[in-house]
Amino acid sequence: MADKEALKRKLDDLEKEYSGTKYNKATNKHLGILRAKISEIKEQMDKKSSKKGQGFSVKKSGNATVCMVGFPNAGKSSTLRALTGVESKVASYAFTTLDVIPGNLDYKGAKIQIFDLPGIVEEAHAGKGRGREIISVMRSADLVLFIVDINDPSGIIKLVEELKLAKIRINAKRPSIRIEKKPSGGVTVSSAFGKVPPKDSIIGALNGHKIFNANVYLNGDCSEEEFEQFLSGQVMYINAVTAINKIDQKTDSEVKKIVDDVVKRTGIKTVPISAEHFINIDALKEAIFTSLGLVRIYLRPKGGSADFEKPLVVDEGETVLDAAKKLNSKTAKDAICAYVTGPSAKFKAQRMGLEHVLMDGDVVTLVYRK
Ligand SMILES: Nc1nc2c(ncn2[C@@H]2O[C@H](COP(=O)(O)OP(=O)(O)OP(=O)(O)O)[C@@H](O)[C@H]2O)c(=O)[nH]1
Ligand SMILES: [Mg+2]
Question: Which CATH number does the domain housing residue 130 bear?
Answer without folding.
Answer: 3.40.50.300
